[in-house]
What we know:
globular, disordered C terminus, alpha/beta, 36% helix
Amino acid sequence: MSQWSDGVENAIRAIAAEQWAALGGKPQAIDPELSNLQLLPGPIGVTQLGAAAFATLGAAVSDLLVTAGHPAQRVAVDVGITSAWLSSPAPSIAHGWKRPLPWSDVSADYPTADGRWVRLQANYPHLRKATADSLGVETTREQVAAAVIELGADEAVDLIMAGGGAAAATRTREQWAAHAQGAAVATEPLVDIFDAEAADSTWSPSPDRPLRGLRILDITRVLAGPTGTRYLAGLGAEVLRIDPTGYEEALGGSGGDLMLGKRCARLDLDTEAGGARFLELLADADVFVHGLRAGALDGLGLGADVRRAARPGLIEVSLNAYGWTGPWVGRRGFDTLVQTAAGYSIEMMNHYGLDQPKLLPAQVMDIGTGYLIAAAVIRGLTKRLEDGKGSTWRLALARSTRHLVEQEEVPEEHVLQWPVIGPTESIAHWTPNGPVKRLLPPIAVGEIPLFWEYPGDPYGSSTPMWVGALGMHR
């Protein structure tokens, strides 16, 4: 093996070891087999972070089974397929039709009066409207650009954020480290872990379908949370996703790949009836995963004390964008905005000699953190088997940036070829948009299959209730 290949594998193993330790895992349980070193190019090791997250997730699944008395499973990660899965939120290829672009042209970088740039996230209609209203313009890229160029970067961001939009100003990595929020998140652990009350549960994993019989209540938004709960559904968990009336993801109302294996229901938590039904669902859940901004549930009267009273011993995993301490705890954020604030879009610009910021080749903070969310859920289940207690786990996109390592130039033969056309499963699957062929999973945990009972149902297409075996309500 070449020195370059050794360096890539060592980086993946080192990141995975740190992730596994942060999740409280036993050191000897993390030893992935790595193959097919096809990477995403650039100065930052995007694939390394993603492959490490898969390795950590595989270790969590194997360790869960060992804790329940089953044999340990070999964990293997195909690094090239990992790169393909990171390159798109959809692990599938449209078969005979063209997938529509899931983003708005208003989501872009805009120059400002002080020589910096502002990145907007406007893929959601309400964010586009809030941005335009804050700037006093129409929701077109040209009018937004004309307004932003008259403002300083921080001034523009503050104005847009105050109006309910989502934006970030460019910084270098050194400037981010010196910023109050960058300094705060640098002192935080990768994962916060808190013990909860004793849990009344007889659930135990099955070696063939590890999460069969597990109930997960899901209130997450693109991209990290849905990525994590999708994987859990692929191992057999019953995942019930809750959205408010009228809400749709930026990827469209059809559900699709991010909703694989899940049922999607409507529930308005800001109403008395909706809040009461949520607590009834929570009382019968094993796990609650949410990505709402800090304090959002408290504002609805559904704070941590209320949730614990409804379901003692709950395993709860939550995600924040910029971290859980510092001045930006409650700030709305997305992967692209964290990249911008933390200095990566400027580093990419400088590396390629461009005249405007450039994002990383994949939203790896979102997707990589998504698989760490899934790993945290499984670690919570393992802890519950060991001590009979629930637990609370907190992650943040900005924390994951610490594992974006510097990358040497990738040899041409090791660069992932785009567009990705495979390897895929041999059969086509139905989706609400059209048939797709799914990319093979980048991770193998023994012979455990990864598959989804539901094809990616449209938002709001199900009833907010738990479903038992064979589709019977219970």
